[in-house]
Design a protein that fits this description.
About 40% of the residues lie in helices and about 20% in strands. It contains 11 helices and 11 strands. The chain has helices at about 20-30, 70, 85-95, 115-120, 165-170, 185-205, 215-230, 240-250, 260-265, 275-285, 290-305; strands at about 10-15, 35-40, 45-50, 60-65, 75-80, 105, 125-130, 135-140, 140-145, 150-155, 175-180. The chain has an 11-stranded mixed β-sheet, sandwiched between helices. The longest helix is centred in the middle third of the chain and has 21 residues, at about 185-205. Bound molecules: pantoate.
Length: about 300
Amino acid sequence: MIPFPTGNTVKITLVGAGAIGSLWAGALARQGHAIHLWRRQTDTAFTLQWQGLDAPDTDTFTFCCNQPERLTSSDVILITVKAFQVLESIKSIAPWLRTATPVIVMHNGMGTENEVLQLLPDNPVLYATTSQAALRVDRQSVRHTGVGPTFLGAVNRAGEQWQSLAGVLNTALAPCQWHEDIHAPQWQKLAVNCAINPLTAILQCRNGELAAPDFTAELTGICREVAAVMTAAGYPTRSETLLQRTLTVIQATAANYSSMQQDVANQRPTEIDAITGFLIEQAHHFQLATPANFALWQQIKHLEQNYG
Ligand code: PAF
């Protein structure tokens, strides 16, 4: 295992500074790590107001951006763009990326892994899935709005040596744990996202509103289909377990708007293809029917196609 001794400054290039990316950028900078941002905007600096959970004060950080030499000298790359932007963002960093540098990909949903591995055949590649919640208050401010676990795991042999990165992430935003099979927590998170995200985006409501008894039948139907697909994919589970987990997340994040609700509210492309779309694709592979999830996928697609 390649160690990152506690207290050492780690040079991190963070690709994408949306809500989750900004949350991690600030949290890692607070630990003294050297954060460099790689953004689509061409500015060479970005100032972020970072507000911790229940903290009245904000921290202000000014990050250096888009410096190819900082990218090359990074100890680790953390990609926090949306699933549909992952390949494009990897292509944008590839010319300056050393093959020894570990790359962590963190996004909602699944399905990018094979193409990422093709683009990065020699780098250590890791995936992370997080249930931390953040709200972009405005373009330059982010607030940490909920604590949840983060899991990190390797998706190629070279990535397996980098378990110490879970410690780096854990010190910045606990809890973060290494997982020997990252697909397991990815599926668990995907199940919750299949249940909460499309419904809250269609209804334009906070997560907590799904706790009303009116939604029990619909949530049950979604979870039943997800459980069947997960079981076929080698991650056996029961629909009752998924429903219970979904209701727990709904309670814990009752006041929050889901990421898909926020995307639809702001007329941005959503992650529906990486969440419900991935589920439907897997269901097709295992010849399983997922009518409840398919109906939600269609409704989100319809909303996206009718943005003004
Ligand atoms: O995408 C999100 O917003 C979150 O993953 C979750 C768990 C649905 C909570 O809002």
